[in-house]
Design a protein that fits this description.
Distance between the termini: 61 Å
Helix content: 40-55%
Largest sheet: 2 strands, antiparallel
Structural class: mainly alpha
Order of helices and strands: HHEEHHHHH
Strand order of the largest sheet: 1-2
Number of helices: 7
Number of strands: 2
Shape: elongated
Strand content: under 5%
Amino acid sequence: MKGAATKPRTVREQLELHRGNPTCAACHKVMDPIGFALENFDVVGAWRTTTEAGVPLDTTDTLADGTVVRGATSLRQALLTRSDVFAQTLTRKLMVYALGRGLTYADMPAVRAIVRDAARQDYRFSAIVLGIVNSVPFQMRMRAPGSQPAATGRQAGL
């Protein structure tokens, strides 16, 4: 079959094709290096060094800030250099989940307070979770009109 494009053999090759679109490239420039660094983990978290097709994985890339990462270990080191940014992003994402809605400007003082308090505890995950649970946005959240309250363990027959 003359002229037929060969199928990309790796995720990196697939994403290189996708990044050919400038609109897509803007986001992928930020996301892809993180994904490549973690590519040694398969879909169930098992460690691997090759693709399903037996092609060796290339887990090296450059983060948006210019930091070169070579796999999960160096990605971890890069994240640790900005623990405050990581903790704030994690807190924001967990708050969205906990509140069941997106965050607004009114939520940001609570997010900053949670991160500030967690910093005093070396950014422990438990400090972030407890900060969210004890925050005003979480304590004062309201059900959407017409929705049913969540069943407690006893009501659910547990």
